[in-house]
Specification:
- There is one protein chain.
- The chain has 361 residues and is of the alpha+beta class.
- The chain has helices at residues 6-17, 69-81, 104-108, 129-138, 156-168, 172-184, 194-197, 210-215, 221-226, 235-238, 241-245, 257-268, 281-287, 348-360, and strands at 23-30, 33-41, 62-63, 188-189, 204-205, 254-255, 272-273, 276-277, 292-296, 301-305, 310-311, 317-320, 326-330, 335-341, 343-344.
- It has an eight-stranded antiparallel sheet with strand order 2-1-14-13-12-11-10-9, with helices on both faces. A three-stranded antiparallel sheet has the order 3-6-4. Strands 5-15 form a two-stranded parallel sheet.
- A hairpin with a 4-residue loop joins strand 10 and strand 11.
- The protein starts with 5 loop residues before the first helix and ends with a helix.
């Protein structure tokens, strides 16, 4: 570790020492190189940060919720870069059963009008890709595509992933492993093998009321978008082979912080990492450009969406996940940041770590 970044390391250890964190990893790249790669706490054990359990290791995987959305998007964007998908083509060019008159670009930028699965489904549906993709194909959009955004909280991965499958033939998890995670040596994935499931951290609630807060008002668009299929905030589902082995690409990427920071380092460098080019510079520029800036009906605030990421006023782009994980690149300051946590709570931990990081840059 570079001594310059000591305040960030100290902040990370303080979160653990005070019980605000029970298990997490943090990786920062600066000026094209890793400068911090930290792990702490336990990957198993009681909720609320109780001591004990297996220690968090550098190869510990954890579910990072929406931090996976840009990862799924990059699979489709790779097909765009290769000339196999047109951003402004209607989705039904590639997926004939799809009824909503949305374009690929609108799907990627959360403006397609399908923020919630239309048919109530039980937790077991998480493992049934064809069922959920079929539900979306037949759905009526909630608004005219392109007119407004609403984070496609649970549906994004199936919209993007089914396009990948229709064009390429491989499911999105296999495509990610073969075409991105493998070549760039990223420790992250969808639809984990049994071996990878054995190194997962168990999610736990920082506060027993977290699942209720996360869903928002009963019956609201947010609650519909994040509550179906059932079980997406339930530890009895999340910490099982059902969830870890399924493809729910909007919300069930399992990753290390180092894998996420490496991914953003490759994007920040224009699509090349360790001399391996996966994306053209033009594609990266388009993927990280603001496509929509306005109200988001699910998040209930102003959001600037790129093709798969949120863009912030300081010029950074990336994604935070429900529960506190986050990963992004900051082109102005020249760093990438990734935080992966098992303690489902708010984003104040990341806010404090970033404040410490900015203070030393």
């Amino acid at each position: 570790m570079h001594e310059r970044f000591g305040p960030v390391r100290n902040c990370f250890h303080d979160l653990l020492a005070t019980g605000r964190e029970s298990g997490a990893s943090l990786t920062v790249w600066y000026d094209g190189h890793p400068v911090l790669d930290l792990t702490g706490g336990s990957r198993t054990g009681a909720a609320g940060g109780a001591a004990g359990g297996d220690p968090w290791r550098p190869d510990t995987l954890v579910n990072v919720y929406s931090v996976g959305k840009p990862v799924a998007a990059l699979c489709l964007l790779m097909l765009v870069d290769r000339g196999r998908v047109d951003l402004d083509a209607p989705v039904d060019r590639y997926w004939p059963e799809f009824q909503t008159p949305a374009t690929v670009r609108q799907v990627l930028s959360h403006t397609a009008g399908l923020p919630a699965f239309p048919v109530p489904r039980p937790a077991t549906a998480i493992a049934d890709w064809a069922l959920l993709a079929g539900d979306l194909a037949a759905a009526e959009p909630e608004w005219a595509p392109g007119s407004v955004a609403g984070e496609h909280a649970w549906t994004y991965g199936h919209l993007v992933g089914e396009l990948v499958r229709r064009v390429d033939g491989r499911p999105v998890g296999r495509f990610l492993a073969d075409e991105i995670a493998g070549p760039w040596r990223l420790d992250l994935g969808f639809a984990l093998s049994e071996a990878d499931q054995r190194r997962c951290a168990d999610l736990r609630y920082g506060d027993p009321q977290w699942p209720v807060r996360a869903l928002g008002e009963p019956g609201s668009l947010r609650a519909r978008a994040m509550g179906n299929p059932a079980g997406g905030q339930d530890l009895a589902v999340l910490n099982t082979p059902l969830w870890r082995g399924a493809e729910m690409p909007a919300v069930n990427l399992h990753a290390t912080a180092s894998g996420l920071a490496r991914l953003y380092a490759g994007l920040l460098a224009g699509g090349v990492l360790d001399d391996v080019r996966l994306f053209g510079q033009d594609l990266v520029t388009e993927a990280t450009r603001v496509q929509y800036d306005g109200p988001d009906l699910v998040l209930d605030r102003q959001v600037a969406w790129t093709l798969g990421m949120q863009w912030e006023q300081d010029g950074s782009w990336g994604m935070g996940g429900l529960g506190g994980s986050s990963a992004w690149a900051d082109p102005e300051r020249g760093y990438t940041f990734a935080y992966a946590t098992a303690r489902l709570a708010e984003h104040d931990r990341v806010d404090e770590l970033v404040e410490a990081l900015h203070s030393v840059l």
